[in-house]
Design a protein that fits this description.
Low-confidence stretches: 566-576
Radius of gyration: 31 Å
Largest sheet: 5 strands, mixed
Number of domains: 3
Number of helices: 21
Helix content: 55-70%
């Protein structure tokens, strides 16, 4: 029964026993409340920066905004650089993964609709990306391509605004709080990215609509305000450098607006304008990453500060309790016992648990959740916080895994492949062994895609991924690089001749038909092989030689394999 007594009830009991002790204890209570308010203020800032939804909103804006999907997509339309297609796909994949994690947090109706709207627009950009590639191959101009792949972003922008509003509502504020660094950084990304400065800037170059200049200047003004707000929060040296880099880059964009207007009036082409006003974003992107990192570090410091405040509170309360003991020994002794058992010990335990949780330690047991008083509320809050950390860790692990995995085939993607190739070469250097890099490109895949549709093409890619995984050894590594391109790293081969066997197996497997609905889809595969260290002694050269060998296999009639250079053994075409 005593365990369920509220702190106010305990205080009244002690005050009723002795007046003077009651006055002393009232003073203790007032002091405690004052410190609790300080802790609550720190806790609010901590939650505003650390809450899962606030974190995911910021990461989502990074994935779709400045340096992300919209930035790379517009540059792909403008500059026709093939590598940007993979970047756009990677950013879309990351955004989808973030949305999936957001959905797992429990949503309001408004948030559910917002995420659906954002997902719909992501799907449209995914489709527009492939259409852009086809138009580029058809030698269309950037302006013509933009006209044909133009997407109405209203729904997604409305969705992002809804998510932002819901986060502020849950935090108990009606508008963005410029006293919390995490929120200022998130608002800065919003003004820079999707629907913001970079979005409008690229559209101005592509569409030559001069009224858009006013919108860009408005976004730049918001960016400058957010940078000023961040500086008022006492940035450290790293943050100051980051803010300077962002401000310098934004100033370049701002300075280019007059030049763009003059070039548009002079009827300059899109390519000429883009080349003239091209800005290097690396410093600003590095600055944004620095702000994210510094905010995370300062959140950890803030969490420790909250723990220190609680520790201070626990230290002071016993002092005043012992002063009360000097007045009436028996009564104060009873008071000490009550406070020690039902106040100090639970708060001390909560402080220890808080410090452990601040270091992301989740293997702890929270006691007292069954109590129906403030201690029980605190214990339940700590358990909720522990569960949130567990969920966040799992979400971060899943996002990292998805960043390295091709979602269609389940194979590793290009990024993981390039890292694994470096690791394999380093291991071969240490052991004196050989590895083979096999670049694989499907033959007759485009006719299948064009004739039977994307569903058939996707089925072919899945089956190819399964077959390559099936014929590979445990020590081999298979990845999908993008489109109909695959790759394999064969390790622990005795000499270059041994690389011929996996190449033959690949060609043989890819020659088998793929069954889709009632159709036998005929495809094939060409393979280029380069051997380390015989053909090259570094990853870049090895990949280039394997690509060259792949093109040689294509030129030789497809559905075969070729080795790089004359050093490697000459491959014999497989039996037809």
């Amino acid at each position: 029964m005593l365990k369920n007594l509220r702190l106010r009830t305990i205080n009244l009991m002690v005050s009723g026993l002795i007046g003077m002790a009651g006055v002393g204890l009232a003073f203790v209570l007032a002091f405690t409340v004052q410190n609790v308010q300080t802790i609550e203020a720190s806790w609010y800032n901590y939650q505003a920066d650390r809450s899962d939804k606030a974190r995911l909103e910021s990461v989502l804006r990074a994935a779709v905004g400045y340096g992300g999907m919209i930035h790379e997509f517009k540059n792909y339309v403008l500059r026709h650089e093939e590598n940007r297609m993979d970047r756009v796909q990677a950013n879309i994949g990351a955004a989808r993964a973030i949305i999936d994690q957001y959905r797992s947090l429990g949503l309001s109706q408004a948030e559910t609709v917002a995420l659906e709207d954002i997902s719909t627009i992501l799907n449209k950009y995914d489709q527009a990306l492939f259409k852009t590639r086809d138009l580029i191959l058809a030698k269309q101009t950037p302006r013509d391509i933009d006209t044909q792949v133009k997407i109405d972003d209203t729904a997604a922008l409305r969705g992002l605004k809804t998510l932002h509003t819901e986060i502020l509502r849950r935090a108990g504020v009606e508008k963005s709080d410029d006293t919390v660094k995490g929120r200022v950084a998130a608002d800065l990304r919003a003004a820079l990215g999707y629907g913001g400065m970079i979005h409008e800037y690229k559209n101005l170059i592509l569409r030559h609509d001069l009224p858009r200049v006013t919108k860009i200047r408005s976004h730049i003004s918001q960016i400058e305000q957010k940078i000023t707000a961040y500086r008022k929060l006492g940035p450290n040296t790293a943050e100051k450098i980051a803010l300077d880099d962002i401000e310098t880059t934004v100033a370049q964009y701002k300075g280019n607006l007059d030049s763009i207007s003059e070039l548009i009036k002079a009827s300059a082409s899109v390519a000429e304008i883009d080349k003239t006003v091209k800005v290097d974003d690396s410093a600003a992107l590095r600055g944004l990453r620095t702000l994210d990192k510094e905010v995370a570090l300062q959140v950890d410091i803030l969490s420790r500060t909250v723990g220190d405040d609680l520790t201070f509170l626990v230290t002071v309360v016993p002092i005043f309790t012992w002063i009360s003991l000097g007045i009436i020994v028996l009564t104060v002794g009873t008071s000490v016992w009550i406070f020690q058992v039902y106040v100090i010990r639970p708060i001390s335990t909560a402080t220890t648990l808080m410090n452990l949780l601040a270091t992301d330690e989740t293997g702890i047991s929270i006691q007292g959740m069954e109590q129906k008083n403030e201690i029980g509320q605190m214990a339940r809050a700590l358990e909720t916080f522990r569960q949130n950390i567990i969920s966040r860790k799992a979400a971060e692990s899943e996002i990292l895994e998805m960043a390295y995995t091709d979602p269609l085939t389940g194979l590793d993607n290009r990024k993981r492949f390039e890292e694994h190739l470096v690791e394999a070469i380093n291991m071969a250097n240490r052991t004196g062994g050989n590895i083979a890099c096999l670049m694989i490109d499907l033959d007759k895949f485009k006719p299948v895609n064009d004739t039977y549709g994307h569903a058939a093409g996707d089925e072919v890619l899945k089956v190819v991924g399964q077959r390559l995984a099936l014929i590979s050894r445990d020590t081999d590594f298979v990845a999908r690089l993008g489109g109909d391109e695959f790759a394999m790293i064969a390790t622990a081969i005795e000499d270059a001749i041994n690389a011929e066997l996996p190449a033959k197996r690949i060609v043989d497997q890819l020659s088998l038909p793929v069954y889709f609905e009632d159709n036998d889809l005929k495809i094939g595969g060409s393979v280029g092989v380069a051997i380390f260290p015989r053909d090259a002694d570094n990853p870049n050269d090895l990949l280039k030689l394997a690509d060259d060998a792949l093109y040689a296999a294509k030129d030789a009639g497809r559905n075969t394999f070729r080795f790089a250079k004359a050093k490697s053994p000459k491959a014999t075409p497989p039996a037809k």
